[in-house]
Amino acid sequence: xxxxxxxxxxxxxxxxxxxxxxxxxxxxxxxxxxxxxxxxxxxxxxxxxxxxxxxxxxxxxxxxxxxxxxxxxxxxxxxxxxxxxxxxxxxxxxxxxxxxxxxxxxxxxxxxxxxxxxxxxxxxxxxxxxxxxxxxxxxxxxxxxxxxxxxxxxxxxxxxxxxxxxxxxxxxxxxxxxxxxxxxxxxxxxxxxxxxxxxxxxxxxxxxxxxxxxxxxxxxxxxxxxxxxxxx
Length: 232
What we know:
Order of helices and strands: HHEHEEHEEHEHEHHE
Number of strands: 8
C-alpha cells in the first residue's frame, strides 16, 4: 500500500510538490456553469443549449467549450453542466458566460470560476464515451497541498488499474463564506468506461484507495453525480 509521509510536508516538500500543479494552470482558467434547463416534453434538455453554445462564438472571446454534460445519476434530468476553458486575459469571458447563463431555455445557472491544479493542462480535452463523474470536495484551505499530493499519488495506481481517466482537479474561486470558514472547494472530473467500472474502482485493497482514504480524512464534505459528455 502507498504510505504518505507527513514529515515531508513539515520539511517544506509540500510546496515543491504543489508547484507543478500551479504551473499546469498558468495557461488557462475555467468556468463551470451548472444549469437547470427547460425543454419541450420528449426533447433532451441539453439539445437546445448545445446549439446555443455552438453559436456563442466562444473562440472569438478567448474561450473554448470543453464539455457539456447531461444528467445520469445524482442530478435532475433537466440539469446539466458546461465547462469552458479561457485564456487568462480573455476580455470577453464575463460577457460570454453571462449570455450563456441567460440563454433561451435556461431556467437558472450557477457559475463557478475554476483554476486547474495538477490537471488539466491547457491543451487537454475530455475523451468521448463513457461516463463523467463530477465530484465536489470541501477541505480546509491549509490542507490543499496535501490534498493535491494524495490525489496525484492515488491517480497513478487508479488509472493503471481501471479503465478511467482523471480529466481535472480544480479549485473554485472562494466565496465570502469560504473565506470565513477557511475552506476551499474543489471539483474533480473523472471519466469512467461505465458505471460498472465506477463501482469496481472503489476496491479498498488498491494502492489508490490507501491515498484516497487519507484524502477522505481531510475532507469536510463531498458529493458527486455522473453524466454523459454531449458532443459540441
